[in-house]
Amino acid sequence: MQVPNDLPKEVLEIREDIRTMRIRGAGRIARAVAMALSKAAAAFVGNDVDEFVKYMEETAAFLRGARPTAVSLPNAISFVMRRLREKGIATVDEGKRTVEEAAKEFVEYSERAVDEIGELGARRFRSGDVVMTHCHSSAAAAVLAAARRAGKVDRVYVKETRPRLQGLIAARVLADAGLDVILIPDSAVRYFMKDVDRVIVGADAVAANGAVVNKVGTSVVALAAKEARVNFYVAAETYKFSPKTLIGELVPIEFRDPAEVVGREWLQEHPNVEVLNPVFDVTPAEYIDAIITERGVISPYAAPLILLEEYGVHAWD
């Protein structure tokens, strides 16, 4: 991927941090990339409007390539760039202000959406519910924290979420919110499902058919919950819905370095063993009881309505 000329160092660092998962979580990725566009715009030198727009388009394409699966990334970029394209700017300074204001608006909306999801999601829980979650999701954590404040949920099972152990982040965040946290191995999900009343997870992408792409292992949790007749909820901001799936495009599943699974030394010692490291999997709509968004709690089969309402004629841009 070619780096646009004169791109500031901090924008390059944001992209690298997203690529290497130092910045992770769909919401954080989306907010980071929106601010990267703002920083790139501010750094542009010159008075040629056409050159500025070309520079921003190249920057957007460069940032879009950081991670292939998290739909929040291209959706955040589209939110900002659409404002620039539709504004009809007359000067570079006007273009810079447009990008800065759009990025700020997106970040504020993203943060507000998490709070709203938390309050809406808490209503789905009953007093004394025991919950299981998978990986770390700011939206799912907001729901559990709100349910804790409402006196409904005290105990939550957290899966370790190998190989990057994001479950440890979730365990810390939820414990800080006052919940009793029980950390379990990924392989123990079915064993403990008998003790659980509800499951809630986040999402990296929601497809038009209601399927949810999330951290690998999510579909196993959903399958175990379905078998045990445990409600399975997804907490997701509407900018995680994937517009291009309306016309049949698939959400790509990212594979990362096998060394994350077994270590570099082990790989070198066993060159004849292939190690695969998929980052995400797909949970079918029929395993999902509801998707909790800032717009309301919906059936997964209502995903096309959210997409059309959110993106309209731009759904396949």
TrEMBL record:
**What name does UniProt use for this protein?**
Ribose 1,5-bisphosphate isomerase
* InterPro entries cross-referenced by the UniProt entry: IF-2B-related, IF_2B-like_C, Initiation_fac_2B_a/b/d, M1Pi_N, NagB/RpiA_transferase-like, R15Pi
* GO molecular function terms noted in the UniProt entry: ribose 1,5-bisphosphate isomerase activity; S-methyl-5-thioribose-1-phosphate isomerase activity
According to UniProt, the reaction catalysed is:
alpha-D-ribose 1,5-bisphosphate = D-ribulose 1,5-bisphosphate
User: Function of this protein?
Assistant: Catalyzes the isomerization of ribose 1,5-bisphosphate (R15P) to ribulose 1,5-bisphosphate (RuBP), the CO(2) acceptor and substrate for RubisCO. Functions in an archaeal AMP degradation pathway, together with AMP phosphorylase and RubisCO.
Q: Where is the active site?
A: 135, 204
Classification via SUPFAM superfamilies: NagB/RpiA/CoA transferase-like
Any idea which positions bind substrate? 24-27, 67, 214-215, 240
Q: Which GO terms describe its biological process?
A: L-methionine salvage from methylthioadenosine; pentose catabolic process
- EC number(s) recorded for this UniProt protein: 5.3.1.29
Gene3D superfamilies given for it?
translation initiation factor eif-2b, domain 1, Translation initiation factor eif-2b, domain 2
Alphabetized NCBIfam families for the sequence: eIF-2B_rel, ribulose_e2b2
Domain of life per record: Archaea
What keywords appear on the UniProt entry? Carbohydrate metabolism, Isomerase
Mention any additional remark: Reaction proceeds via a cis-phosphoenolate intermediate.
Q: Which family does it belong to?
A: Belongs to the eIF-2B alpha/beta/delta subunits family. R15P isomerase subfamily.
The species this protein was found in: Conexivisphaera calida
